[in-house]
Design goal:
With 337 residues, the chain is mainly alpha-helical. It has 17 helices and no strands. The chain starts with 5 loop residues before the first helix and ends in a 5-residue tail after the last helix.
Length: 337
């Protein structure tokens, strides 16, 4: 078989980027890992495939932003608005129910701080989780539940280190959402749902770097779940999966239609992953699914200058890579380039 031409490789990458790729489970829940381990050097990450997928992501983002300004985009936006009206009117109830269910599940399982790989033998943690769930019953006690979530996050940092817990800023955003909602206040012009949205976006963009820095952690999972790769080689799949996750995470920060489409695709990805990975995945990703569903239903905060989306995308990609590798090198003494 002759090698693919440059145009064929681009079209293949574009097709991959447009597919609703099944979400991988958080690899730390299902396979061996070592946070202090030397990540792949950036000189190896920046392959031709990486650059090709960067271009693909920019093309897709530009097309979707252009579409939003057309009559077709306006029809789609109104459709999202109508479909999300019921959830939008009950966003607070949705969060309270989801948060309560999540912490009841953690309390029932036991020995878990916030996510399946963050283990503890301290019984008081489980009782704090039960109290957090109970605090969802009354609006006035949501602030106490928010404080409890921050306490669990801080305990996770003390036990596993700050770099590991940077995988989960969504929990700090959840705590902020609960506290701000209970107090009926905003941070400047940021609504509570906007804080939650940023938390989900940063969580996804940060997690995507792991797919490029430590693709070998996922290879055993791909061997036992062949359908995930769509026939692509594991190295290319991991690079592409990282771009899908980063791009959809970034899209949550953009205009209502762009983030609505991204939230819908991400919700489908995380939900479909439960079929592959079971109850642990369902529990571990419950709060991000709650956030994605409510963000998909939201229609506020219009971003200006949508034509600058590719510029902001490149800036976000460079910043996230630099912070991930720079902080890892600072904490663990690993190499960057």
């Amino acid at each position: 078989m002759r090698p693919l031409t440059a145009s064929q490789r681009f079209l293949t990458a574009l097709a991959f980027g447009l597919l609703p790729v099944p979400a991988e489970a958080h690899i730390k829940w299902f396979a061996p890992y070592s946070v202090p381990e030397q990540p792949r050097l950036l000189s190896a990450v920046f392959s031709r495939g990486f650059l090709l997928l960067t271009l693909t992501a920019l093309v897709v983002l530009t097309i979707v932003c252009w579409l939003e300004r057309t009559a077709v985009g306006q029809v789609l936006a109104r459709s999202f608005d109508r479909l999300g009206a019921g959830i939008r009117a009950r966003t607070e109830e949705f969060y309270r129910a989801g948060t309560g269910a999540f912490f009841v599940a953690l309390f029932t399982l036991g020995n878990i701080i916030l996510t399946p790989e963050l283990l503890t033998k301290v019984d008081a943690v489980s009782w704090l989780q039960a109290a957090i769930a109970l605090g969802m019953v009354w609006r006035t006690t949501m602030v106490l539940s928010a404080a409890g979530i921050v306490a669990l996050y801080a305990y996770g940092v003390l036990t596993y280190g700050i770099f590991h817990l940077l995988d989960y800023p969504i929990f700090l955003a959840l705590a902020a959402y609960l506290a701000l909602t209970a107090a009926r206040v905003r941070i400047h012009d940021f609504r509570p749902i906007d804080v939650a949205r940023w938390g989900a976006a940063v969580t996804l963009m940060w997690a995507s770097i792991e797919k490029w820095a430590y693709p070998q952690w996922t290879y055993p999972v791909l061997q036992s779940h062949h359908s995930l790769t769509f026939g692509f080689s594991p190295p290319f799949y991991m690079t592409a999966a990282g771009f899908v996750e980063f791009s959809l995470g970034f899209s949550l920060l953009w205009t209502p239609l762009v983030r609505g489409m991204a939230a819908t695709v991400l919700s489908a990805m995380f939900t479909s992953a439960v079929l592959e990975f079971g109850k642990i995945d369902a529990i571990g990703h419950l709060m991000i699914v709650v956030t994605l569903v409510t963000v998909g239903a939201d229609n506020g905060r219009v971003v200006r200058r949508t034509t600058l989306a590719p510029v902001f995308y490149c800036a976000a990609l460079a910043t996230t890579l630099a912070f991930y590798y720079g902080l890892h090198a600072l904490i663990y003494g690993t190499r960057i380039w």
